[in-house]
Amino acid sequence: MNVFFRELKAYQKSTFIWIASLCTLVVVFLLMFPAFTKDVEATRAIMANLPLAVRNALDISLQNFFTVYGFFAYLLTFASLAGAVQAMNIGVGIISKEDSGKTVDFLLTKPISRIKVVTNKILAAVFILLLTNLIFILVALSTAAMVSVSSFDAGLLLLIALTLLFVQLFFLAFGILLSVLIPKIKSTISVSLPVVFGFFVIGMLGAVIGNDNVRYICPFKFYDSNYIIDHSAYDIKFLIIEAVFILLAITASYVIYLRKDIRAVS
Amino acid sequence: MNLFFRELKSYRNGLIFWCLGMAVLVGSGMAKFATIQTTGQSVTDLISQFPQSIQTIFGLTGFDLTKASGYFGVLFMYIALMATVHAVLLGAGIISKEERDKTSEFLFVKPISRFRVITVKLSAGLINLIILNLATFGSSIYFIDYFSKGQSYIGDVAILMVGLLFLQLIFFFIGTMVAAVNEKPKSSASIATAILLFTFVLTFLININIKLDQLKYLTPFKYFDARDLMANGHLDSVYVTISLILIAFTIFLTYRSYDDRDLQI
Questions:
Q1: For position A61, what pLDDT does the model report?
Q2: Residues of chain B with pLDDT under 70
Q3: Cα-flanking dihedrals φ and ψ of residue B151, to 5°?
Q4: Alpha carbons A125 and A204: distance in angstroms, whole number
Q5: How far, in Å, CA of B166 to CA of B80, rounded?
Q6: How far apart are CA A74 and CA A40, in angstroms?
Q7: Which residue of B lies nearest to A193 if distances are taken between CA atoms?
Q8: Are A219 and A167 in contact (CB under 8 A)?
Q9: Cβ-based contacts of A28 with chain B (< 8 Å)
Q10: What is the spatial distance between Cα B99 and Cα B108, in angstroms, rounded to a whole number?
Q11: B162 touches chain A (CB under 8 A)
Q12: How is A157-217 classified by DSSP, letter by letter?
């Protein structure tokens, strides 16, 4: 358990900064919701002039976004981007920092198996992410309750908010896998940023140009907010894809790290 | 000159990876253009009357998607995002890596002044930025040409690439400035990235709330907006001036802080 608490302490400061930034983001965006509601009214007026066929087609896709859920889902794209960077940083860094910080032989000569080291580190990472999400959700729900004029379904909002955690877990697993695959990582962030932003850009681009297949490779698009709002549930297909991916990535990480030749510090 | 080639070499593989990634981004984005449904002008006109916040949230961009160059305008935001990520990481890394990798003692006992070290490193960084910019330009021309049928686009693309270069320069020097001022080499890249993320999110915030319009000077992404660039056909002189001042200021701070601070050994 020492490793577990040691990691929590090591990430203490950065976790606070991440939590504070995520909370600021959600509060700032949600404070704009009242102004947005006015724009929605204006849009409805313009839409009344559209031909009926066009209006119906547009209305179906726009309806969900005119609610607090849709607005929240929109701001969550940015929260997920930031959250993914956090998760990927932890994932890439938590094992490789022993190597880059030249502390790896100090750690591995202790009477503790590599399995235990990795397990403790992963547990610490998951704990950090859970804590981040817990606070994020509390802040998000209470702010939403303040700015929304009409009553809303907190359960549904919670479902949407939890997609942040799923995105983070995906990138955590991916980061851990990369960190045991890449022989020498000098800087965590120069590995994690291109990967996260790459996925983000693929997802955004896929949404703008309307390619549905992008959803299968882009974790940012696994949990479509339209689907969640319509069904009050996740699309089970993507939960399975994510679970399988995380399972494979973590298993592979264990297997690789346990057999990896680790160079002593010279 | 040794240092110059040393830096170019150490960033070579990464740069190839970035150029390929950029080409794939442009290529896959433009490939969709070939199959996209043309929406018809009347609906596009109506949608453009929607408040800007609504347009932003639905990803309606106000570009004429029936033209290859309009379609490329949509892509530009994402190209700019990737290029600035590259620039900011490059800038922060090229200055802070000597301290991070504990090679600064080795480097700075060589008969070469700190001023020169920074100059050489900045030049090597600039070469990297320009190569990535040219690679983006080249792949854009190639893919747009492949998918557009004899429409004119060179002017539009060229002006966007100049805007892209400005964005790259701004964020590159923000990176170097952060790394020069900040005494903890490990956190430089994170701080520089935080600035990038902040300005990126701010761009969207401004788009969804018109009251925040005055904040547009805080985010370089607003200086080189694809829609304005393509509509006007030239860069906005106010924004160019701000950019140049910003670049000059960050270069000055990079030299100034790194020249006379203690290095982490």
A1: 57
A2: 32-49, 57-62, 64-66, 149-150
A3: -85, 155
A4: 27
A5: 10
A6: 15
A7: B85
A8: yes
A9: 205
A10: 11
A11: no
A12: HHHHHHHHHHHHHHHHHHHHHHHHHSS--S-HHHHHHHHHHHHHHHHHHHHHHT-GGGGGT
Distance of CA A86 to the CA centre of its chain: 8
Q: What is the pLDDT of residue B43?
A: 55
What are the chain B neighbours of A197 within 8 Å (beta carbons)? 81-82, 85
pTM of the model: 0.89
Percentage of residues in chain A with pLDDT exceeding 90? 57
CA atoms of B17 and A12, how far apart (whole Å): 34
**More reliable by pLDDT, A162 or A266:** A162
CA distance B51 to chain A (A): 6
Structure tokens, B134:
């040219």
Domain boundaries, chain A: 2-259
For residue B157, the distance in angstroms to the closest alpha carbon of chain A comes to 19
CA distance B161 to B240: 14
Residue B220, C-beta contacts closer than 8 angstroms, at least 6 positions apart: B166, B167, B170, B171, B199, B243, B246
Chain B interface includes A40 (CB < 8 A): yes
Nearest residue on chain B to A202, judged by CA atoms?
B25
Query: Given this model, what pLDDT does residue B129 score?
Result: 97
What distance in Å separates the CA atoms of residue B221 and residue B229, rounded to the nearest whole number? 12
Contact residues for A81 (Cβ-Cβ < 8 A; gap 6+): A196, A197, A200, A220, B197
Q: Say how far apart CA B211 and CA A244 lie, in whole Å.
A: 45
Q: Cβ distance A37 to A30 under 8 Å?
A: no
Report the residue from A32, A205, A210 with minimal CB separation from B208.
A32
Query: How many CB atoms neighbour CB B112 within 10 A?
Result: 13
Report the pLDDT averaged over residues A182-186.
Answer: 87
Q: What is the rounded CA–CA span in Å between residue B26 and residue B79? A: 8
- Report d(CA A175, CA A215) in Å as an integer: 20
pLDDT digits (tens, 9 = 90+) for A5-15: 999 999 999 99
- Tracing tokens 């908010």 back to the chain, one arrives at A161
The three-point CA angle A122-A127-A129 to 5° equals 95
What confidence tens digit (pLDDT) does each residue in A22-81 have?
A: 999 999 999 988 888 888 777 777 777 766 666 665 555 566 677 888 889 889 989 999
Angle at A82 between CA A186 and CA A167, to 5 degrees: 95
pLDDT of residue A19: 97
Tokens of B212: 């925040």
CB atoms within 10 A of CB A133: 21
Q: Residue A264 is encoded by which pair of tokens?
A: 């002593």
Return d(Cα A91, Cα A104) in angstroms, integer: 17
Q: Does B23 touch chain A (CB under 8 A)?
A: no
